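Reviewer comment 2.1 asked that we show a complete input and output for one of the modelled complexes. We chose the iron/sulfur cluster case, as it is the one discussed in the main text.
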Amino acid sequence: MNARQTPRKRDRRKRLFKTIACSGCGTCCSEPIVPVTDSDVRRIARATGRAPESFVRFYSDDDMDFAAESGVWIRFPAGVRAMGLRRRKNRCLFLGDDMRCTIYQHRPRTCRTFPYQTDLDESGALRRVTMNPIVKCRRRRVDDSPLTKLVRDSRAEDREDDRYYARVEIWNESVGGKKRMRDFLAFVERPAGARGKKSKR
Ligand code: SF4
Ligand code: SF4
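Response of the prediction step:
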């Protein structure tokens, strides 16, 4: 391997990985609770016109299996919680009766890489792709693909996660344990660095 190749050039060599032919059974959108970032929440709220509290819920560590040191944990008076999509009838709120995502164009970043789990190197190139063990997908791995879109989505997910975890850290260090969940939603409703608009009144 030429160590001087840029990630983009390495991607162009089209190293192929096994992918699955998804049957659309809906298991991916039924079994796991979907964690969301502040950008996911703003994007979904904008696209659907819904208030964040109508589709977001805060889950405890009994519900979500993230390590204690993970950046997802937000401190509230009631204890630590992680932000995720609400569920209805034991599945994601946004899964339609036809087993299709009703917010597909605006779905959370993590949904865009499911059911794969990617291992990117420091330069962002794909080292390995495996099936995410959270879901028991019964489809066999059939096709060969350079997974260009998956790599792009994984990089975007990593960047978004890092930005969100930095915001959670700010919250935890400044008001964590003192303010409530609806205050956190108001906190993340504004993009990082955005200043509050002056009222015209
Ligand atoms: S479990 Fe497998 S087949 Fe079912 S929706 Fe997920 S990826 Fe597709
Ligand atoms: S947002 Fe859409 S893709 Fe993601 S879990 Fe819900 S229904 Fe599935």
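Residues 20, 22-28, 115, 135, 137, 139 surround iron/sulfur cluster (ligand 1) (CB under 6 Å). We note this here for comparison with the apo prediction described in Section 3.2.
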